[in-house]
Please model this.
Amino acid sequence: MNRKRNWLVLLLAVVMLAGLIAGCGGKKNDGSGNSGGASSATGGGSGSTDAGDGDLEPITFTFYGADPNPNWQNMQDPVGKAITAATGVILDAEFEVGDPAQKIALIAASGKYPHLISPKGDLGKLVEAGAMLDLTDLIEQHAPNIKKLFGDQIKRLRYSEEDPSIYVIPTYAEVGQTYFDASGGFQLQHRVVKELGFPRIRTVKDFENAIREYLKRHPKDENGNPNIGLTLNADDWRMYISVTNPAFYTTGAPDDGEYYIDIDTYEVTYHFRRPIEKEYFRWLNHMNAEGLLDPESFVQKYDQYLAKIASGRVLGLIDQRWDFQEGENALKAEGKFEYGYGHYPVTLTEEFKETSFWPVGFSPGWGVGITVDCPDPVRAIKFLDFLASEEGQILDNWGIEGEHYYYDENGKRVIPDELVERRKNDPSGFQRETGIGLYHNLGAHYGDGVLDSTGNYYTTNFPEQIIASYNDVEKEVLAAYGAKTWKDLFPSEEEFPVKPWGAAWNIQVPADSELAVLQERMKEITWRRIPEAILAPPEDFDRIWDEYQQELLKAGVEKMEDEYEKLVRARIKLWNE
Amino acid sequence: MGNRLLRSSTVSDRLFDAFVYAYAAFVLVITLYPFLHVAAISLNDSIDTVRGGITIYPRKFTLKNYEMIFSYQHLGTGFRNSALRTLIGTVLGVISSSMLAYTLSRKDFQGRRFVSVFLALTMYVSGGLIPFFLLIRELNLINTFAVYILPGIVSAFNVFVVRSFIDGLPYALQESAKIDGANDFTIYWRIILPLTKPALATIALFVAVGHWNSWFDTYLFNSQAEHLTTLQYELMKVLQSTQSSVDYRARNMNEVMAHISPESVKMAITMVVTLPILFVYPFLQRYFVKGMTLGAVKS
Amino acid sequence: MEAATWTVKKNMTRKERAVRFFRNAVRNRWLYAMSLPFVAWVFVFHYLPLWGWTMAFQRYRPGRPFFEQEWVGLEHFRALFQDELFYQVLRNTLAMSVMGLVAGFVVPIFFALMLNEIRLMFYKRFVQTVSYLPHFVSWVVVAGIVTKMLSTDGGPVNELLVGLGILDEPYPFMAKGKLFWIIVTLADVWKETGWNAIIYLAAISGIGPELYEAARVDGANRIQQMWHITLPGIRTTIIVLLIMSIGHLISIGFEKQFLLGNNLVREYSQVLDLYALNYGLGMGRFSFGTAINIFNSVVSVILLFTANGIFKRVTRESIM
Model:
């Protein structure tokens, strides 16, 4: 026994000693490596300014992207070759396969950075480590296309008030995006509205009545399986989309993440604390009590949810199209178009406007930056500038002229039918063959609905095409409601004031901050309490809701709101001064 | 063997037999299900799969999902590296574990306690990701094949498993060898190794499966070295469906969802990854039986 | 015997001990040669990175030199131990791991014993091979199968129970927090029994046939042979595995709990490893994550030594 303890003590001593030695040694190296990298990069930068202009000499940049890109072909695809031909740049790229937060922490800790990097939400770690290059002057001197693309809004690219550097070119935000169709709201199967003679679907009561009435007439489908009134999609993060976000869409508030921001006073409220949202959840509770809500709503996994939709038994949804379309596609593949879904601008009562299309203005977020290890920042910024140019964007969206599209006699860009088919049937194969879309989040770009110098749209989505993609049942339903697209049913962008903070959800909350912890804590409480409240007997709803609110207060929700308000105010100041 | 068969004639023996066979059949059915389920989905049309309800046979048969997977490049390189690391890693792993296990089984070895504790602790303490990454970098193992093999050569778990087997062997065997003038290494090599075959086969399986399934080291250390990629890592790339709560607002989700692998493709990937390693076990199984000859040596 | 050498050693002078040590070392030279390289190896790859534990006492920012990190003392540990949620996840972790430990030993051992009694070699091997297949199926798939089986919307289990008249209407198994631990344990047994039995099967094949021969001569029937020969024959293996598993009681991963869980059973499904991810690494809080890691390690090592000590005294089997 005694001896064992001795061993242990010895062991611990050795370990600690070794730990200290290794720790210091390792860290020392880091430090020197870091500063060395920084100084050499600055040297390289200034050196190449003279030699670099108009230079097409082949150069390879390493790149890390925080998004997966499984179809990457080392730029050996047609679009990639065209980009290399125009810029001389080849990217030796690595795309994320696991958890980007982890990988970027390792990149930051190792002190050896890829030349170009797209860190998504983890930019802060790299800035803190001194890894990122300020792009302000580079853009000014070498990037006319980027300047043109962002125009006056370029000040919104700045990192923060204390550090007004530009670290990334925003490549995820679509500049000037116009939405041609609605993908959210509440959804009802076409067979429901047809059977009921196309009733007005405007409030949750309308929605509820349509479901109730149809269920009364047809409790079972033609195979004898019970029809389901409304099912929700609450598997992990989908909880936001199908359960909690609709609470603000239906009560006149825009999507600002988990917060409601008063447009006049900038006062921030955790949106579940708005009294009106309680009424929305009370309605869901009522739907459950009435037996109209699928009792499995909070238990089912995503694939079960899709399978239910694909069975055609679900009458109503509250979701986004991209989140349920796999299920609907299975129905369409069988020709069951009546079982597809229309989008309706449902709100709690008539006094509210559905806020899906509340405009966010220009709200840059994630993007691509250049690190201090980049041997030739000028060539790098020129590369990014090319991607932001008209030529670069058309390459990325449309491919190569004569190969992937052509101009018809009216000067309109057209994609040959067989390529349209190919893209639809084998999207990843198509992408690997052509390279179209592989460079989308590498370069800054316009969104849908923006015209280029030839009068064509930059992107391949445009209104005519959306209407053409509707099936006959959809067209019939839309006609009955006097609309051409689902979007026509929704309040349009012009009806809302512009928010000076853009989209609050892309305000970066510092990872290692108290706010981040508080947010996680509130999420924990909300995700537990909301399902409990919805599934409770109606007489218990008020009690559970009060307990929920008390729990939030106890966990420090007010502190969280205050902290967040500081961030919102800082952004408003930074963007609008 | 035949002898035992003849003996089972009493009623209780027969009842016992009936129970055993029925129980095994029950296990057979319930453990076959998930795998057949995966196989069925992998052979089913991907749009049809969304409708759910597939059990153990495909409803709309297709090989498309497999075609899609095999259309990716680097799979060959990945397969080669995975096979190579499995082979080398397993051989080294078995040798290191059995050697250490033998020294630890020797009651007269002074360092026994220290080494046991020293080893056992490695199962429960770790410095975390960042220090480990920096260590590997300091050792210049980034972008090398060696990084697949070196860090994991010694597995404490396996050492203790093998030692428990050696402890079960009669010590007299070693004694007699000693008297014959054999040194400790010879005893290990000539006596211990052959006698612990079932144990070695077992840990060989553990090590091999571990090596075959690992992708995280490729991801951490060799992600920039295309020629060092592994099968699992390549398939992880295809499998990737990073959707998260931050993503959905910031992205054109229609675009994103179009590139997410359908369920059927994911299952086909599982099959491609799993099938090669499954054949290791039946191959090793014979050593389990060979251990039976042990008794002969003992007496 | 060991006790004897002990007292002898105690009475020796320092010099005598040194001489004795070296003489032993020379005699054990092969054993040293066969173990020390590996010890050095383990030291490099497992012990050197432990300097990372210092992060728990800092506000670690990646990329900053060691001496420029901000030191915060025990702040992270204080935050951890003051968090109510921490105790909840600890409770869940321990509950599920203890249940998993019991089931994870009893069932595979029973299965291995049963398999050993099958005399049709082909059938035995086939069952054995198939039984380990679920180990290779990911938890995503297994959790999917389990939720579908237990679904109230046409799930086979509910259809069966309703059909047999045991239930009046489908029972929402997955929505009941109290059932969650049991469901996780059963799913784990289903997935891992075959895999965990491998080690016991190997151990069983190491038992000499002459022992069975002798037992039969004494008139033991097969159940008695199983009880008196097979089971004691694999006792060492069982205990060694048990000691190691007890050390792992609080780090059981989070994948299965996460995938089988949902928001209705959140209070029962959250485990320590998921908590560590959500509030540590996943949020970029390396220091807090490391504090949890240290807590984990310390508890594990205490459990390990306790289990080892108890077994050493009670069964005379141990790993250290």
About this structure: The longest strand of chain A covers residues 59-65. DSSP finds 21 helices and 15 strands in chain A. Residues 186-356+470-576 of chain A form a domain with the D-Maltodextrin-Binding Protein; domain 2 fold (CATH 3.40.190.10). Residues 2-52 of chain A form the longest helix (51 residues).
